[in-house]
User: What shape does this take?
Amino acid sequence: MSPGHTSPNSDIPGVTYLSRDPALPRPHIGVLGSVHGDEECGVEAIRDLLRRGEAGELALGVGTMVLIHGNPEASALGTRSTEGGADINRILDFDWVTTLPRDQWTSEHHRAVALRPVLEDVDVLLDLHSASKETPAFGIVNAVPRSLEVAKRLGVGFVVHSWGELSPKVTIGVLQRGERPGISVECGQHHDPQTNARALDITERFLRYVGALEGEEPALTEVIELEVEEILKKPSPAFRFARPLLGMERLDAGELVGTDGTIDFRLEKTRWAILPNEGAAVGGDLLYLAKEAG
Assistant: This one.
């Protein structure tokens, strides 16, 4: 194996191209990590790929990898967003570009604008995340049919079809507007070495399946397919779950999800709990509830 050709994007820090061909041909295959600064698994996977690619330890295949560190400033702080900042993965509809005065843009608004042409250029995207609580690894796909095909090769047990009302605002929503496949993966809990290892394994499976790495095609995995039906927002500082919840846990109809002593939330139907976050700010995403697809 020969060392790959790496080419940092001179205009956009944190974006590097890796290919066996210095012309950096298509397809452009995106791997995005750490769009949230406390989710280190993605950028660690990117660093590993770059190190091995430059050392000639990767069997590079077709096209060009586009390796994207989503939010370097937040990563340096070890926080989800920069101080006083926004969540990049909630503003990628870009509706605010013409309505929010520029002097009110946060670091994340500027970063989103910088990343826009990169995201709009890639032909397929893997977006790596981790969660604040323990969760099995699962994929989230946009509505482009090939996204599900790719997700079933990543070794995850669950695939969620979109983020409901959030879908246009997240990374894979940018890909959907261009009718290109996009897959996000929650790889496990923050700061867990197993999560980092899993993120790298998922990335290598993705790259082999789309042809960016040579090697055996990853096996097709049977998955439980889910659809987000409701996003619960935290109603008050006092709201607590009725019991500790884990990600991808099945909740029974009639079960009390949580209460603040005044507001009770009880399920009318059986649902799956996705990314429970009791520490969310008031008005923030407390829990995603999903039903089985089909």
Notes: DSSP finds six helices and 15 strands in the chain. The mean pLDDT is 96.
